[in-house]
Amino acid sequence: MERIQIISNHLVSGEIKPQTIATDFFDFDGLLSEKELATRKKAEKFAKEEINSLNINEYYERAEFPLPIIERLRGLNWVGANIKGYGSPELTSMELGLIAMEFAKSSADIATFYTILLNITMLAIYYSGSEQQKQYYLPKMTSLEKIGAFALTEPEAGSDAAGLKCTAKKLPNGGGWILNGEKRWIGNAPMADIIVVWARNVDTNKIHGFILEPSKVVNKQQLRIETLQKKFAFRSVQNGHIFMKDCFIPESQRLTNALDFNSGPGKCLFLTRIVVGWIALGVASNAYEKCLQYVKQRNQFGQPLAQFQLVQERLVKMCSNIQAISLMCHRVSQLFDQGKLTSGQVGLLKAFSTSKAREVVSLARELFGGNGILLDDIGRNFVDMEGIYTFEGTYDVNTLIAAREITGLSAISSSTTTQQQIQKK
């Protein structure tokens, strides 16, 4: 009995400092530089004052993008990621990630629009375009005068991003290119001024990039863009299905330095997969913080829900997941900024962060009970996390990319290799 009393006294002794911010438990802010911390605080303030004031849930229910936010975002001057020059703020991936995290606490849709969809389009032009193309397009995109879209995914090419069926046929005498095929799940496509389209050269089988401006396509039979309907997640992100039939693109609109997948779209995906990890962290943090507040305030059976052991076990699991995600995001961003990041490392981040964040929002929804399916609480976090878990490469594909680096053996076979193996049999 005396031993039990000693243990009991130990467990209840000491000063208790309840934590309310998800990443506070291991003092995440202590890892940040003054500039990074200032960026985070500015993004947090903007999200609370500007994004939250838009009645995001109403736009979400109507599956509309909140266009008024664009003018407010323009004043931040954060579009352009780590691009050097051309009006870009020249952010580090750490700073971009912190912005994504804070925005995602309020809206995963706006975080995705601002930190992924706009930047990945610009990165394609920055990495693969001519100097003339960079000078013409990037300043307009940095200022949000022009909205971009990155058209890689196809109906039959999702995780197998290199297996594109969209074709590009070069016309003789430098007369331009003819594009045929479809693109699906292209964020911003229905509202984009500039779409970077990736297609396979029918003569060389290499993947090339092209800058498509929908408003300049004279023959409307050549290009059709439909908005995807009936989504249950990321409802405010405007995803499009692009149909191209003998769509003419001038030679001047080809990205001259995109010679294959790795020098084209592949080069852009490193940074965006890092940002997805930060968005997952933001969504999970919001779900945890709201859940913690809820279980401390809601009383059942004569005491707060937060005082029950089973509830506390779930809170600790959620909190520990968030600490792990935050520390992994921090380190991977450092490696990217230092030019040391590998595809396996970023694959591991994307797979781990989204799977653990998915567990966090699932537990939060569980602890909210019936209230957990309402958009006003964490219902939006719950469904959006399914999209985050899937896009920018599924959990399985990113896991296998990491495993390839761990083992030195690839479990992923290209469609060409598989077909050759079938033919041999």
Extract low-pLDDT stretches. Answer: 415-425
The SSE order reads HHHHHHHEEEEEEEHEEHHHHH
Gross morphology is: elongated
> Overall pLDDT, averaged?
91
Relative helix content: 40-55%
Helix tally equals 13
Sheet-strand content, in percent, reads 5-15%
Largest sheet: 7 strands, mixed
Distance between the termini: 73 Å
DSSP strand tally:
9
Work out the radius of gyration.
23 Å
Instruction: Specify the structural class.
Output: alpha+beta
Throw out a few tags for this protein.
alpha+beta; 13 helices
Overview of the structural elements:
It is a single chain. This protein has 13 helices and 9 strands. The chain has 425 residues and is of the alpha+beta class. Strands 1, 2, 3, 4, 5, 6 and 7 form a 7-stranded mixed beta sheet that branches. A two-stranded antiparallel sheet has the order 8-9. Helix 5 crosses helix 8. The termini are far apart.
Write the layout of secondary structure elements.
Layout: H1 2-12, H2 34-51, H3 56-62, H4 68-74, H5 93-106, H6 108-128, H7 131-142, E1 148-151, E2 167-170, E3 177-187, E4 194-201, E5 207-212, E6 223-227, E7 239-249, H8 265-297, E8 299-300, E9 303-304, H9 309-337, H10 343-367, H11 379-390, H12 395-407, H13 415-424
Parallel strand pairs: 1-4, 2-4
Antiparallel strand pairs: 2-3, 3-7, 4-5, 6-7, 8-9
